[in-house]
Fold Tripartite motif-containing protein 47-like.
Amino acid sequence: MAEASSALDPNQFRCQICLDQLKDPVTIPCGHSYCMSCIKSCWDQEDCLAVYSCPHCRQTFIPRPVLYRNTILAEVVEKLKKTGLQAATPVDHYAGPGDVECDVCTGRKHKAVKSCLVCLASYCETHLQPHYESTAFKKHKLTDATGRLQDKVCSQHDKPLEVYCRTDQQCICYPCTMDEHRGHETVSAAAGWVERQKQIGETQKEFQQRIQTREKELQELRETVASFRGSAQSAVQDSERIFTEMIRSIERRRSEVTQLIRDQEKAEVSQAEGDMERLKQEIDELKRRHSELEQLSHTEDHIHFLQRCQGLPVVPEAGFGPRISVSPRCSFENVRKVVSELKDQLENGCEKKTAEIHHTG
């Protein structure tokens, strides 16, 4: 039995409704098997129509078939459980956070792959098969699995939104075209999609053109800024060089004026020192003669006194040079005046030229 069970596909013993291993398996007239509770629950929902169908092949039955437990199938499933052969479902087939769940699965939900706008339900790969295999679902409209199916259904008529109203620019159902949207310009949702796609395409082209224009302007502005910065840097370097040369020129002129003043000072001081030396010599000579006269005035020898007086000058100026002026012959007041005027002219010139720089900027 172990060899036989190992050759079996565990998926053959899986309920096509709950996708789990069969529990109390029953086989309906078309030959497909389900869990007793799963097929009962499914057919309970169809009681209002009094028409019952196979969830897999969609074959219909009237009246509702009586369900009997398939004992042979139940024994096979039970033995499969004992041998550990389970119908495993890949983990990634189960619905996780953010996934759309299959509306047919019971227990742990599988991930839906498609949604039906007619059934208003989402299906996993297994429960979607009847939509592909049965002609009863041929006209059903499938879309990518979505958890917002109600957004695709008219809230007033509970019908799929398959029409686009150009007048009100909204999606509507067919009954809406006969009610509040009567007389409006309408097209199919597919045609509306094509129109909107075209409009979006034109809008995208316009946006792309604007983007290209703005990017070109941005690039030109960047180049202008780079050129302006380069020009500013060059101007700063040139102005610093020129101001440095001006400062050096002023320093040279300052040194020249200082040297000129020192030269004049040296000449005047030298001449004054010469006059001072001569004056000291004259003073010494005058003191000597004064001393002689003082001694002579105390002589009582008349003959000696008269003989000595004949060799002496009558006035003190005799034998001495001209009078020396004690007032300075050279004044630096004019130098101060000229330098001050030069400073004022330089400041006025700098202020004027700086104002011109502001205006040109």
The two ends are 101 Å apart (CA to CA). The chain has a mean pLDDT of 83. The helical segments are 2-6, 36-44, 71-82, 125-133, 174-178, 189-297, 302-309, 333-360.
